[in-house]
């Protein structure tokens, strides 16, 4: 469970988030919506520790994170993937997901991910077909077949 209580974030004297209270239960999905400049990115950056918290409490599964460094928050289960920043732009979607698995004991992508995001299943199938075509073309070229 994520519990945010009386949570405030400021840039100098300018308070961007004022005494916010949110509780997110396990398996609950929450969307943060708002116009540009309303504090959505500031909230996300403060949750991961990239922007300091002015006051309040941030708990994940009962553990207080508000005074922890970013890397400690990640170790304790908090994560932030910025949109459109192409952080791992040279990696495939599969490789990006597998990077996120490093904090778990899982070695492969859980099947429920493909249920939640069916397009990933299509990408996986397409990737296999492309890989098979690449392997066949490489085999033809190396044996001189097809020339």
What would your notes on this structure say?
The protein has about 150 residues and is of the alpha+beta class. The protein folds into 2 domains: about 80 residues, 3-Layer(aba) Sandwich (Rossmann fold), CATH 3.40.50; about 60 residues. It is about 35% helix and about 20% strand. The chain is built from 5 helices and 4 strands; from the N terminus they run E-E-H-E-E-H-H-H-H. Strands 2-1-3-4 form a 4-stranded antiparallel beta sheet, with helices on one face. Strand 1 and strand 2 form a beta hairpin. The model has no long low-confidence stretch (mean pLDDT about 85).
Task: Describe the SSE topology.
Blueprint: E1 2-11, E2 14-24, H1 40-48, E3 55-60, E4 63-64, H2 70-75, H3 93-100, H4 111-116, H5 118-143
Antiparallel strand pairs: 1-2, 1-3, 3-4
Q: What Rg do the Cα atoms give?
A: 21 Å
Structure classification: alpha+beta
Q: Strand fraction band?
A: 15-25%
Averaged pLDDT: 83
Number of helices: 5
- CATH C-level class of the largest domain is Alpha Beta
What do we call the CATH topology of the largest domain?
A: Rossmann fold
Order of helices and strands: EEHEEHHHH
In total, the number of strands is 4
Contiguous runs where pLDDT drops below 50 for at least 5 residues: none
């Amino acid at each position: 469970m994520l519990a945010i209580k009386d949570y405030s974030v400021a840039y100098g004297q300018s308070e961007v988030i004022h005494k916010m209270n949110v509780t997110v239960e396990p398996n609950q999905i929450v969307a943060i919506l708002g116009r540009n400049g309303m504090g959505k990115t500031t909230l996300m950056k403060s949750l991961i520790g990239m922007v300091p918290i002015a006051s309040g409490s941030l708990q994940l599964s009962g553990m207080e994170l508000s005074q922890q460094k970013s890397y400690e928050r990640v170790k304790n289960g908090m994560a932030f993937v910025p949109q459109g920043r192409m952080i791992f732009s040279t990696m495939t979607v599969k490789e990006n997901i597998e990077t996120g698995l490093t904090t778990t004991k899982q070695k492969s992508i859980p099947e429920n991910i493909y249920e939640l995001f069916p397009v990933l299943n299509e990408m996986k199938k397409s990737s296999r077909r492309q890989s098979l075509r690449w392997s066949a073309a490489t085999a033809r070229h190396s044996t001189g077949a097809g020339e």
